[in-house]
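WARN no homologs supplied; continuing
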Amino acid sequence: MFHLTKDQVIYAMSPTNTPVLTIPPNSQIEFETADALSGQITSIADRFETLDWTRVNPATGPVYVTGAEPGDILSVTIEKIEIPSSGVTITGKGMGVVGHLLDEPASKLIPIEGDFALFSEKIRLPLNKMIGVIGVAPAEGAIPCGIPDLHGGNMDCKEIKEGATILLPVNVPGALLALGDLHAVMADGEICVSGLEVSGKVTVTVDVIKNQPLPLPMILSDTHVMTLASHEDLDQAVDLAVVNMVEYLYNTHGFEKSEAAMLLSLAGDVRICQVVDPKKTARVELRREYLK
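OK structure emitted
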């Protein structure tokens, strides 16, 4: 198994990034990751307003996958996510959906015991360990790791978790995969601008899929197929995710487009991944049993 340490990071996904690791297809990698704040808040004494914002949302990588060429699909199966015994969540004036209601920065250190995050003496939150930032290089230009788009990035989708496979477009030779921004707990929306931010380790299996055009990014779980889309306007993100699912059903499973639309209206769920990044992310979920 290959290994990357959390000091091997990028802050923007770009075709000009130098790979820190080269692997063949069907390889397993363990990524060590810093938290989304690069470990800058470790106690309540750390002042939120002194954060170095140039060090936010680091992604470990990038990884060059031999044989991955533009037009291919990079398949990343999440085998395991390991997290520490505490995390931090933050918000403040102007941040997130309700930042206009807040007067000053706030942070909360939250212990993790077993399968729960201890939000307070009375509230124990079940863990849902997931990856906030995962993506590949875009075809051109540099996209900060905090922004989601067609290449992946900061989609903050809680379904990018253990057991899931995320499918990403290969835009440049080698794909240049990077990931980070782990969350121990996060709800759909991420409305205060953070989940329970943690460092950690992620073990993934990376492979290359040839000659299979799909509306990417996509997520495959044991139970669902999901399409993802990001846009500055949430309505447009939702529309794009729905259209992508219709196209997937039409091109891959032989549905007429009207039939696909009706199936989604009856059995497909539209969800919001996050509404706090420069581009908002939506997903459409459909149970795989309907596609047998």
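The longest strand covers residues 73-82.
OK
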